[in-house]
Amino acid sequence: MLNRFCISVFCCLLFTCTPVSALSAETEKAEVMEPISVNAARDILELEKLPTSATVITRQDIEEKKYINVEDMLREELGLDVLQNGTLGSSTTVFMRGGGSSSTLVLIDGVQVNSNTLGSYNFAHIQPDNVERIEILRGPQSTLWGGDAVGGVINIVTRKGKGTPSHRFSFEGGSFATFKETFSTQGAFDQFDYAFSASRTDVEGFSSANERNGNTENDGYNNNSFSLRTGLDFAEKRGRADFIGQYIDARIDFDSFVFGVGQVDGPPHTSQDLYYLTAPVSYKILPFWEVRLNPNFAFDQVKSRNQPSGDSTIISRTSTLDLQNNFTAGDYYNVLVGGEYQVRAGENISNGMDRRLDNKSAYLQGIFDYEDTIVITAGFRHDVNDSFDDVTTYKFEAAYRFKQTGTRLRGAYGTGFRAPTINDLFFPGFSNPNLQPEENTSWEVGFDQSFLNGDITFTSVYFDARFENLIQFNLATFRPENVARATSRGLENTLAVRLPWDLELSANYTWNQAFDASTRTQLRRRAEHKFHANIHHWWRSRLHSLIGVTHKSKTLDGATGTDPYIVVRAAMDYTVNDQWKLTARAENLFDEDYEEIPGFGTAGISGYAGLVYNF
């Protein structure tokens, strides 16, 4: 333990005690940033104007933090609980603001990718190589996106090619026999642009069943990922057509579950094939009217082999056609009108289940944006489904900016719903075709404050969400029923400070009380307290380093739970010249022994190094 402690202290000193430049970070990294248009809000407002609680992880964040998977980026973010049941590639789900894992709608370039059988999305395999940004909207978004957006939306936006064609090769290797190779290329020719990436990840891993319980068999993982985005501007740039595709082929070993014992070493493995396709087209018919048509398709096939209960193959397909009209009425008013038709299919071959859900919806939203001072939005949506009652949702948002003091007050009130999954409704012997959607009513108030010309920014938001008709499995009837109620309330704070000597501090803290309204007990796997902070340092535009600290309080999981923990990491990169860059990162520097889910292991102290070649 002493040797590990010394190594950890040395790594911290190495990453933070870099030479201090005489130049300020402001002059070294001065860059004109374009306003971020948030796709998850249907591009109606820029990030800084949104009244709702939103976070955007930019491409710069992805490059600086050097995580191997998108899930690791999300672990640091406000209001999110990210849970993984073992080594890299193991099933990973996200809870947002106390909602369940199926209460967060996940989009990839506007394609809805949640599993139709389980309801949640498995973040284990999505790579950040061709990701431009990750948009996180907290609170119910059903007015714009329908079911499953009851807790919020996470939208992953891939890169758009620009400028002279350029290419990149990168490599990283390290602990647990981890190796990753990535090739990417992007650029533009007149009205045509493209961006493509391909990567291969191989990991020997560690035992997903926690080693502290005597499990020693490593669970390996490999991943092949391909991402393509092409676009064409036409009609003198009044129109644009895109084709976006992503394919992932992954295989993960995992451990068996023995009743009364828990997770134990075993031979099962899962292979997963996923692809997402979308071909959005937009055209400005008149100066005040733009129409957008987005046909898209998501496919997810999971094959589990060598399980004690037998082999299984589960397939999820989602086909969506979305038509959106944006109208501009003068300088301050915008109206968004649209409709969506969606078919969600789920198939479990071993159990003979093959069902589909058809959903039609219409939505309307009005936006008032007055000179960067007042923003008001109001909207509603009506969903008609062939398997449960119609649902109408609505949302009102407002924000006011005091320009003299740099203060912005904002608030929101809205409703949302989560549709029953195909398993909930149709799984043979364990379903309930009479289920109704879960319902949510939520409100929030908050403020944003900046000081010293933006060198210090602080935000604080209080939220309160009430869940009704929660779908819960009844052990007496062995069927899911609308019997539960839950309450989730909390406080979300962020702080960002530009410090002297080329340092920057960013931190966030989430307090979330999520509990069963009838028993007043804490909901499973939700942490009441979560804190994360990063300290960045830049030296002469060549060397960047960071130290990150994450704290999470205890959680409950039935009769067991997880203990609180603190994890420290470090990352750095050194730009040798215009072509070469060296990278390194160290995870869990103090070798914290912790769990995210009871019975499942997590990585101890580990190190990785790599290089990037641009040509």
UniProtKB/TrEMBL annotation:
Subcellular location per the Swiss-Prot or TrEMBL entry: Cell outer membrane
Keywords: Cell outer membrane, Ion transport, Membrane, Signal, TonB box, Transmembrane, Transmembrane beta strand, Transport
GO biological process: cobalamin transport; monoatomic ion transport
Principal location listed in the UniProt entry: membrane
Signal peptide extent: 1-22
Boundaries of every TonB-dependent receptor-like beta-barrel domain copy: 210-589
Any one annotated GO CC term: cell outer membrane
Keyword Ion transport carried by entry: yes
Keyword Transmembrane: yes
InterPro entries: Beta-barrel_TonB, Beta-barrel_TonB_sf, Plug_dom, Plug_dom_sf, TonB-dep_rcpt-like
Membrane topology note: Multi-pass membrane protein
Boundaries of every TonB-dependent receptor plug domain copy: 47-153
Family: Belongs to the TonB-dependent receptor family.
PANTHER family xref list: COLICIN I RECEPTOR-RELATED (PTHR30069:SF53), TONB-DEPENDENT OUTER MEMBRANE RECEPTOR (PTHR30069)
Protein name, UniProt field: Putative Vitamin B12 transporter BtuB
Organism: Nitrospina gracilis (strain 3/211)
